[in-house]
Amino acid sequence: MNTQAYSRILGSGFVTGEVVIDNHRLARVFDTSDEWIRERSGIEQRYFVKEGTATSDLGVGAAKKALEDAKVKPEEIDYIVVATMTPDHYFPGVGPQLQAKLGMGTIPTLDIRQQCSGFVYGMQVCDALIRSGAAKRLLFVGCEIHSNFFPLSKVGWDIVMGRSDAKIDPAELERNNNHRGVLVLFGDAAGALVMGPTEDPQRGFLGYSLHTDGQDMKTLYAAAPGFAYRPYNNQAHIDEQLFVPQMEGKTVFKMAVTKMPESVREVCEKVGVQVSELDLLVPHQANLRISAGVQKSLKLPDEKVYNNIQRYGNTTAATIPIAYDECMKAGRIKPGNLVCFTALGAGFHWGAALMRA
Ligand code: ACO
Question: How many whole angstroms from 182 Cα to the centroid of ligand 1?
C-alpha cells in the first residue's frame, strides 16, 4: 500500500439557500408530484436562495464555517480554489469575489469548471498545490445557485417561494414542463474545506482516478449563452430557453452507475487497498437511485455509503463537502478511516479521490 499522504482536511462547513422548497411547491409550477420526485430521485426538499443572494455569498458563508471549524484565521489562508458551474457572472470566476468578500488580500484564486465532478477534480488540484509548497493553508469551496436556471415569470417565482396562492398560467405551465425532468433535481448550497499539509504521513489524500469523455457533451449541458454564437447572448436564447440545462436523464443515469464504481475500483487498486476496506463512500448526490446502484456494484453495506440528497437535492459542486461535513459532525468519519469520494457529471467528467482521515 502507498502510505505517502500529501495533504489533509483541517475543517469543513456548509450553508444552504435561505428558503426550503418541498416537492409540493414545485408541483405548483410543473406537472409533477411529490411521489414522482421521491420515487425517481429520493429528493424530498431542496433550498433556494432569496433573490439578491449570489453564488459567492453562499461560498462566503460556507468558507466562514470551514475556517471556524479548522480554527484557521482568514489571514492564514494563502490560496483559494473554487468549483462552481453557476458563477455570479460569466467572467471572472467566483474566486476573486470570495477573496474580496473574505478580505483575503491578494492571495491567488483559481476557479475550476468540472460541474458535478468539480469537487473530486478540485481535491487533486488542492492536494497538488499543497504538496508542491504553493499553498500551506488552502480554502476549497464548492458553491452553486441552480434556482436561477428556472425560467419562471414573476408570478411563477411568487408561487414557488410561497408568496402567492395563485395558479400558474397554463401557457407557462406547458413551457415549464419542458424542463421538469431536470429542474426538480437541483438545490442551492455551498460547502467548503480548509486544507493543509499533513504532519502524519499515514493520513491525508492518497490517490485519484479522474476521467473525461467529451464525445457526449450534449447529453447534459446548458446550450447558451456561449461563445459558439455571435453575439454570445441573444433574444433567441431567451425565447428558446436555451439557458436551462438540457439532459438525457437515462444516459446520465447509466454513465453514473457504471463510471462511479469503476473509478472507485481504480483508485483503490492504484493505492493498493480493497474496496471492502473502505470505511465510508461519499458519492456525489445526484440521485438516490444512482447512489444505490453504485453501492450495489461495489457490494458495500448501507452503513458505508452516505446519502443526504433527500434534504438538499443535487447541489453539484457542493454535494461532497456538505456530505463530508455532516459525516464529520455526526462521527461517521473517525481518525484513520479510509474514505472515498466519487462523482460523475456534465462533460462527462468523473472520478474518485481516496483519503485516510
Ligand atoms: N414529474 C413528473 N413526470 C416527469 C417529470 C417530473 N418532474 N420529469 C419527467 N417526467 C415524465 C417524462 O415526461 C416521461 O413521461 P412519458 O413517459 O409520458 O414520456 C416520464 O416521466 C419518464 O421520464 P424519464 O425521463 O424517462 O424518467 P426517468 O425514469 O429516466 O427518470 C430522472 C428521470 C430522474 C431524471 C433520471 O433519468 C435520472 O435521475 N437521471 C440522472 C440524472 C441526474 O442525476 N442528473 C443530475 C446532473 S448530473 C449528475 O449530477 C450526475
Answer: 7
- pTM, 2 dp: 0.96
Run of H or E including 22: strand 19-22
Query: Do residue 45 and residue 180 come from a single domain?
Result: yes
Q: 224 and 302 in contact (C-beta within 8 Å)? A: no
Q: Give the distance (Å) from ligand 1 centre to CA of residue 179.
A: 10
Largest CA distance in the chain: 62
Cα 340 to Cα 269: distance, rounded to the nearest angstrom? 13
Which cell goes with 176? 415549464
User: Can you tell me which atom of ligand 1 is nearest the CA of 185?
Assistant: 46
Test site for ligand 1: of 37, 251, 252, most ligand atoms within 8 A of the Cβ? 252
Instruction: Assess whether 164 and 64 both reside in one domain.
Output: yes
The values of phi and psi at residue 51, to 5°, are: -60, 135
Block residue for cell numbers 455526526: 330
Amino acid at 183: L
Domain enclosing residue 298, as ranges: 204-216+245-304+319-356
Q: In what order do the strands lie in the sheet with 79-83?
A: 7-16, 189-197, 138-144, 79-83, 109-112
- Cα of 38 vs centre of ligand 1, distance in Å, is 12
Ligand 1 in reach of 256 Cβ (< 6 A): yes
Query: Which residues neighbour 9 within 8 Å (Cβ) at sequence distance 6 or greater?
Result: 193, 194, 195, 324, 355, 357
Q: How many domains does the chain have?
A: 2
16 assigned to some structural domain? yes
Show pLDDT as tens, one digit a residue, over the chain (357 residues). Answer: 444 457 999 999 999 999 999 999 999 999 999 999 999 999 999 999 999 999 999 999 999 999 999 999 999 999 999 999 999 999 999 999 999 999 999 999 999 999 999 999 999 999 999 999 999 999 999 999 999 999 999 999 999 999 999 999 999 999 999 999 999 999 999 999 999 998 787 889 999 999 999 998 999 999 999 999 999 999 999 999 999 999 999 999 999 999 999 999 999 999 999 999 999 999 999 999 999 999 999 999 999 999 999 999 999 999 999 999 999 999 999 999 999 999 999 999 999 999 999
